[in-house]
Write a structure and sequence with these properties.
This protein has 115 residues and is mostly beta strands. It has no helices and eleven strands. The strands form two sheets. Strands 2, 4, 5, 6, 9, 10 and 11 form a seven-stranded mixed sheet that branches. The chain has a four-stranded antiparallel sheet with strand order 1-3-8-7, with no helix packed on it.
């Protein structure tokens, strides 16, 4: 059974930092990504990373967020620095299976940036 579990969300003040972790299990994964969805907004891609560790970022987080992965642990991470209220959202992990077209989502973790 494939499972993605996010952790590391919470409440942080503007300018603060958080690191999210997504632990994946059940198969081998190719591309993995972090998405987020703020209230009354569509889910958007934040950053993604290939199995070879090539990364892309949405413009609004460039220079502040860093995505990384550990293939041996089947984990990806999102280091978030200099957070602002606009980063408040539920953050989701997404993973594409390496040997099939299947894609999987985690249940999400809440990140709230507020003073």
């Amino acid at each position: 059974q494939v499972q993605l579990v996010e952790s590391g969300g919470g409440l942080v003040q503007p300018g603060g930092s958080l690191t999210l972790t997504c632990t994946a299990s059940g198969t081998i994964f190719d591309n993995m990504a972090w998405y987020r969805q703020a209230p009354e907004k569509e889910r958007e891609l934040v950053a993604d990373i290939t199995r070879g560790e090539r990364t892309t970022y949405t413009q609004s987080v460039k220079g502040r967020f860093t995505i990384s992965r550990d293939n041996a642990k089947s984990e990806i991470y999102l280091q978030m620095n200099n957070l602002n209220v606009g980063d408040t959202a539920v953050y989701y992990c997404k993973a594409d299976a390496l040997f099939s077209p299947a894609e999987y989502w985690g249940q999400g973790t809440q990140v709230t940036v507020s003073s």
